[in-house]
Design brief:
Layout (H helix, E strand, L loop, with lengths): L13 H8 L3 H14 L2 E3 L4 E3 L4 H10 L1 H17 L2 E8 L2 E8 L14 E3 L4 H8 L3 H10 L13 H14 L2 E4 L6 E9 L5 E10 L5 H19 L4
């Protein structure tokens, strides 16, 4: 019910909420009134909207989950070694979610803030984690997923995206340039646990400036890879 509200529909009637959630108006209104009683919604009697209390849900995850706490000291190491903002993110459905970060804030898209959710294929961390899936999973994902363009550089061809995933899977790391925001580059490496299972991705996000792709990768990739190896037995 909470996810039925977004920037396009910040206020909904119980009928509209029910339609978006696949339930009757009566059932939707019951949930909405419960959420209002708990403080997650407000209402004028007809329309319902979210309150800031909803933010506690995401904050509770960041404070209670083991992974964000475990990776934070290592992100500090990456920032010190690269002088760039460092992130750890996980896949959630078709999206990548940033769950930990370290480094100075830059003037960049809000998609890069802690807790943000972005379509996976337009970030280095996201396309890396997609590429690490098996070929059957990738085929199904490409068949059922719409590639939304964010910039003139965003890969919107499924064949090109498949080729990019194949390259990433072969080399074991990813670089993504201007896919989500013009002038921004990301470099990412996978984070595996001691059993070899992919848990997350770690990346740096940096302005492109005059630095070439090759120079940027040569500068930040060794720090990312060394840090990822150091983390393996802790995940």
């Amino acid at each position: 019910m909470i996810e039925a509200f977004d920037d396009a529909t910040p206020r909904l009637t119980s009928s509209q909420a029910g339609e978006r959630c696949g339930m009757t108006r009566t059932a939707a209104r019951r949930y909405l009134l419960t959420l209002t009683h708990l403080g997650y919604m407000a209402t004028d009697g007809k329309l319902f909207w979210l309150t800031p209390r909803v933010l506690r849900l995401g904050q509770s995850y960041l404070e209670s989950a083991r992974l964000p706490r475990t990776v934070q000291p290592f992100l500090q190491r990456v920032t010190a070694g690269t002088q760039e903002a460092a992130y750890v993110s996980v896949l959630d459905g078709d999206d990548v979610v940033f769950i930990a970060r370290n480094g100075a804030n830059r003037t960049m898209n809000t998609g890069y803030v802690l807790g943000a959710r972005v379509q996976a294929q337009v970030t280095a961390a996201g396309i890396l984690m997609l590429a690490m899936k098996d070929s059957h999973w990738i085929d199904h994902w490409l068949e059922t997923h719409e590639l939304k363009p964010y910039t003139t550089h965003t890969i919107s061809s499924k064949d090109l995206l498949r080729s990019e995933m194949t390259l990433i899977r072969h080399q074991g790391w990813a670089i993504s340039e201007q896919q989500l925001e013009l002038g921004i580059r990301g470099v990412a490496v996978p984070l595996f646990d001691r059993r070899g299972h992919l848990q997350a991705a770690m990346n740096v996000i940096l302005p492109m400036g005059q630095e070439s792709s090759e120079a940027a990768a040569a500068r930040v990739l060794p720090v990312l890879q060394e840090t990822a190896r150091a983390m393996r037995n802790l995940l």
